[in-house]
Design a protein that fits this description.
heterodimer; A: about 110 residues; mainly beta; 4-stranded antiparallel β-sheet; B: about 110 residues; 6-stranded mixed β-sheet; globular
């Protein structure tokens, strides 16, 4: 089983460039999430989608946009990258977003903005 | 808003010994779940154990157990018979019963001495 697949695994951008991080899950999950991980900060929620067709802001949404393309795919877009967005980005999913469900995580995208 | 605090950035344990990782949280809710996730150097996020707030009995998964003190809002992880493969970053996380959001602590890096 592929689980949660993120692409790319690594990316270097210049300030002001745009890019889209792709995420797809093959577990028929309804809920999907985007987190960023920074040293000493843990994982912080950027956006999440409780179900297909809905998206909501998390803790740190500024500078990002998301699209829940279909049930499988949830993309994260940086319209004008800034050095403060240098981070490791994780996509995750869960079946229904219920409280007791564990999240399944992708392997992460290391993004550097110069 | 809920907060999760992991005050110790690093800990070390001798192989085969026992170590306890601390976590406190702040919430006004009565319905929630608590989780411990492990992140080895591969960056993969792995669920270690979870605890429902309504259950008084502490959760146990093989060598991993928790000490859940609801009144004190404390949720520590005990690792018994530590193994070299336990070396990783460990994150405590809180999930509200009211929404899908999972809030992480800043993490603690555990090293295991052979």
């Amino acid at each position: 089983n592929a689980g949660v697949t993120q692409t790319p695994k690594f990316q270097v951008l210049k300030t002001g460039q745009s890019m889209t991080l792709q995420c797809a899950q093959d577990m028929n999950h309804n809920s999907m999430y985007w987190y960023r991980q920074d040293p000493g900060m843990g994982l912080r929620l950027i956006y999440y989608s409780a179900s297909e067709g809905t998206t909501d802001k998390g803790e740190v949404p500024n500078g990002y946009n998301v699209s829940r393309l279909n049930k499988r795919e949830f993309s994260l877009r940086l319209e004008s990258a800034a050095p403060s967005q240098t981070s490791v980005y994780f996509c995750a999913s869960s079946y229904n977003g219920q409280t007791n469900e564990k999240l399944f995580f992708g392997s992460g995208t290391q993004l550097s903005v110069l | 808003a809920q907060t999760v605090t992991q005050s110790q950035p690093e800990m070390s344990v001798q192989e085969a010994e026992t170590v306890t990782l601390s976590c406190t949280y702040d919430t006004s809710e009565s319905d929630y779940y608590l989780f411990w996730y492990k992140q080895p150097p591969s960056r993969q996020m792995i669920l270690v154990i979870r605890q429902e707030a309504y259950k008084q009995q502490n959760a146990t998964e093989n060598r991993f157990s928790v000490n859940f003190q609801k009144a004190a809002k404390s949720f520590s992880l005990k690792i018994s018979d530590s193994q070299l493969g336990d070396a990783a970053m460990y994150f405590c996380a809180y999930r509200s019963g009211a929404n899908s959001k999972l809030t992480f602590g800043k993490g603690i890096t555990l090293s295991v001495r052979p």
